Amino acid sequence: MTVKSDIEIAREARKRPIQEIGAKLGIGAEDLLPYGHDKAKVSQQFIDSLKDRADGKLILVTAINPTPAGEGKTTTTVGLGDGLNAIGKNAAVCIREASLGPNFGMKGGAAGGGYAQIVPMEEMNLHFTGDFHAITSAHNLLAAMIDNSIYWGNPLDIDTRRVMWRRALDMNDRALRQITTSLGGVANGFPREAGFDITVASEVMAILCLANDLKDLEKRLGDMIVAYTRDKTPIYCRDIKADGAMTVLLKDAMQPNLVQTLENNPAFVHGGPFANIAHGCNSVIATKTALKLADYVVTEAGFGADLGAEKFMDIKCRKAGLAPAAVVLVATIRAMKMNGGVAKADLAPENVAAVRDGCANLGRHVENVKSFGVPVVVAINHFVSDTDAEVQAVKDFVAELGIDAVLCKHWAHGSDGTRDLAAKVVELADTESDFAPIYPDDMGLADKIEAVATKIYRADGVVIDGKTRKQLAEWEEQGYGHLPVCMAKTQYSFTTDPEARGAPTGFTIPVREVRLSAGAGFVVVICGEIMTMPGLPRVPSAENIHLNDAGQIEGLF
Questions:
Q1: pLDDT at residue 432 above 90?
Q2: Spatial separation of the C-alpha atoms in residues 111 and 261, rounded to whole Å
Q3: Is residue 107 flagged as an active site residue?
Q4: Which of 21, 119, 326, 439 pairs with 39 at a CA distance of 20 to 30 A?
Q5: Which residue in 39, 73, 319, 424 is the catalytic one?
Q6: Helices marked H in 224-262 — which ranges?
Q7: Rounded mean pLDDT of 499-503?
Q8: Which listed residue (107, 162, 219, 515) is catalytic?
Q9: Is the pLDDT of residue 1 over 60?
């Protein structure tokens, strides 16, 4: 039996005109701004008209720590959205846009897989509606205006050693992590050290995903700290007078994108902050719009629950006034085996003992999600190599935690493979929940870092040097102590060691650096060896991406 690739399945999709997809949610053709026939932006005027409507129920899809075996979180998100519609519910999907960096690097695209995909898959994974280009342009406009201000007499007295604003590019390029700018003489300005972050790590990206409207967007952009004077007085984006022009560049990007699943159900795809650097959730405006239009909104948070779900709860929900009605925690038998010590090459044979050993990682994530006061169900994303005994081992383990595990076959069967999960999610969403973030606003910044490290990662504590603690204290004195913390660490482990799988204990979390994202409204805490500009792997996916003789794209996944 030949298994079709994701792109082959996507290419065979029977897409409906985007106006028909909008009509399913009550969006008139006049309120859609089409980008071709199969994607459109939803107008701000229409979004503003929804403010008095009641909200639907928000369902979060998260996962165990990712492994090379694959977990399929986005695939499950799409499959669940289709499954809810299949059992007669009015449901929509909300996910992030794909970054070109991981697309051409190692991770691949972000449109789902198999028969649980969002289409047009190729365009979603490439330029889409140009949102990332707009964010990159706005980010770099500010960088250019900072250097321009310094060149023309430096009226703001910016200390060129304390320019915090780096440049951005939506590509993995390690050569740009640390650079020297303005070389070549007087006409080119004053040489200084600088660098690039990947666009999805930009504070502009985070702001676009947390802003409620254009007015809020412009205020947040103005609030960004871009540099300091010699006496360490902060220089804001509004001091550079770039916030207005940046908002103009982001005007269209701020409007959510509407596309469809393979089963022609509505999907909002908007924003894309990295989950191991930024907060890893799609935009607040897309989520809130979907909640006004659908009875159930299925969204996801990037990477494992220790990063994505924690930030979804402690940052996005806190800032946007949202509360999930239920959480779906995705796991695979293959990943359980890897967490149980089996090498990737040896995953095919049945190994129930390894599955049981690997369930410790799943168990810790379940306990963590429960600690937010939200009901949770485990979705076992099915692979053809899974055996009944292995699946039962996971179900038995989860039952001991007082919850259910549902086998899902959406990759092969679409919504027919998620009807049971959809029914369980509806049941959970109708129960009472007591959602609350794991730390209060008025807790000190260092204590918030410690709370995440000990309560979510289960570390013994954090290691924060004196200089960093002083910096945190200064931000508290400046009025930023109420902000949540955004932990930047490896996605592969509860620790900062990507090789430490399972549910490790007896470790600490080293804090390498802290960055104030005053516009986005959080403090980024960089732990371990995490990079804000990734590099390409030895054999990047880009080597296999090309056009075939028919002019179709090959190699995307």
A1: no
A2: 9
A3: yes
A4: 326
A5: 73
A6: 237-240, 243-250
A7: 92
A8: 107
A9: no
- Average pLDDT, integer, range 500-509: 95
Tell me: the pLDDT tens digits for 369-415?
999 999 999 999 999 889 999 999 999 999 999 999 999 999 999 99
Cβ proximity of 273 and 281 under 8 Å: yes
> Has 96 been annotated as catalytic?
yes
pLDDT digits (tens, 9 = 90+) for 91-132: 999 999 999 998 898 766 778 889 999 999 889 899 999 999
| Secondary-structure percent of the chain, ordered helix, strand, coil, rounded to 5 | 40, 20, 40
At residue 548, the 3 state secondary structure works out as: coil
Residue 236 and residue 163: Cα distance in Å, rounded? 11
Our answer to whether residue 515 is catalytic in this structure is: no
Rounded CA-CA distance 103/226 in Å is 29
> Mean per-residue pLDDT for 486-509?
94
User: Largest alpha-carbon pair distance within the chain?
Assistant: 73
Query: How far, in Å, CA of 83 to CA of 156, rounded?
Result: 56
Instruction: Say how many C-beta atoms besides its own lie within 10 A of residue 25's C-beta.
Output: 18
**Candidate list 15, 57, 96, 448, residue with the active-site label:** 96
Kindly report the pTM of this predicted structure: 0.94
Q: Which domains does the chain have, with CATH numbers?
A: 6-129+253-429 (3.40.50.300), 131-249 (3.30.1510.10), 445-527 (3.10.410.10)
Residues 6 or more apart in contact with residue 138 via CB below 8 angstroms: 204, 221, 246, 249, 250
Q: Is 251 a catalytic residue?
A: no
* Residue 332 zone, left/alpha/beta (φ > 0; ψ -120 to 50; rest): beta
Cα within 13 Å of Cα(139), Cβ side = 27
At residue 380, what is the residue type? I
* Known active-site residue 496: no
Please give the pLDDT value at position 532.
86
* Identity at 368, one-letter amino acid code: N
DSSP character string of 340-375 = TT--GGG-SS--HHHHHHHHHHHHHHHHHHHTTT--
Determine which of 41-55, 111-125, 190-204 has the lowest per-residue pLDDT on average.
111-125
Which of 528, 556, 527 is closest to 541 using CA atoms? Answer: 556
pLDDT band at 2 (very low <50, low <70, confident <90, very high): low
- Tell me, rounded to whole angstroms, the distance of Cα 220 from its chain centroid: 20
The reply to whether 383 belongs to the active site is: yes
Residue 7: its pLDDT value, please? 83
Q: Whose structure tokens read 């799609």? A: 282
475 is catalytic: no
Asked if residues 557 and 104 have their Cβ atoms less than 8 Å apart, the reply is: no
